[in-house]
Amino acid sequence: MKGNDYTRGWIALCALFMLFALSGCGAAGEAVDMSASKKERSEPVVLRYSSFQMDSGSAYFEWIAEFERHNPDIKIDVDYIENANYMTGLKMRLLGGERMDVFDVWSSSLFEEVRRIEPNAYLDISGSPFLDDFHPASLAPVTIGGKVYGVPGLMHTSGLIYNKSMFERLGLEVPVSWDEFLIVCEELRSRGIVPVALNSEWWVPQFLFGSMMSNNGADAAWTDKLESGEARANDPILIDAMMKTKEIIDRGYVPSDWQRNKHEQSKEMLFRGEAAMIVTGTWDLPNVISRSPDQKFEFMMVPGEDRTVPNLNIGSYKVISSGTDHPEEAKRFLAFMNGREMQQQGARTMLAVPSAKDAIVDEPIVDKISSFVLRRDAVIYWPHTISTESLQVAILEQVNAYLAGQDLESTLSAIQDEVDRDRVAR
Q1: Which residues form the signal peptide (predicted)?
Q2: Are the beta carbons of 237 and 213 closer than 8 angstroms?
């Protein structure tokens, strides 16, 4: 190396030492304690996750722990709200200004209910690469004006779980029309078996009634007409579904004390062989199968007169609060928790259908459910197309009152009043 090269090298080295020295000084040459900022950078970002899905035994805790292992720069603060109090809990947090970075909504109706309280509640995640992994239909309920505000979880369908072993023993075929369904119910009743284990918990009859609504054509477009006033509560679509649900009660195809029963009691009837079918959704299959391993259980749709339409019932959607200070970290959490790998794991355990495309689940029951929910004519489960959770509950409470003995005319009038009241309040 030549002399001038040594000189230039020495000058450069001195400059480098000067740069390091200055980096520990303030603008006026005052010393700056770098340990605080270094410590701040080393501490993980804390995301608060509010959910109704963290009940005991939930795999979600394991998934969260796995996410934290893969993302050591993020810590999840779990805010568990019981299912029965979830809507109230969300409202309290929203109205009280309590911090929520990520939270779950269990239906498009609850998704809209939150928007009614705070129109800008959700962070727009449009364009996020992980959205390409989902079935387009599963994103529709959380898409507004072409912008996406959430990611879907596992997909279910609702209707009837039936005792396949009993059907085979009695030589009964799964009905494919409403008339065939009534014939099967009559055969079961004649043998001293309760055909349908219905109960009075307010959220249960909707899985029978809602399926009939879908069969009759009550999709999102019809619901919009109902809420805008273009369609009325006395629409044949609604009346027929209500009357068919009441018919199985009047014919004695449900327990005589159904109004006093709870959902758990209905499942017990199924396990003991006292009932052949139960009104519910595919989310109950794991519990039913595990508690009665000596019998075979499967799912059937509620058959319609002219057509039987499969319902798409998405268990939950994860959304990000628009007020989060950590949007990128929150997106990573959504992409992991609802991503293909986690959905594949969850689908095997919960016997549900992943909303992530190209997911592989080697489970015959899941394949059968997939044949329902991924059909082209599958529709978002009614009444989840009702704009808000509050209106949905109000309508269903009136339907339940009709099933318990309230006359049809009064019920339809009360439903119309609820719809009109909601429209005025918007």
Answers
A1: 1-27
A2: yes
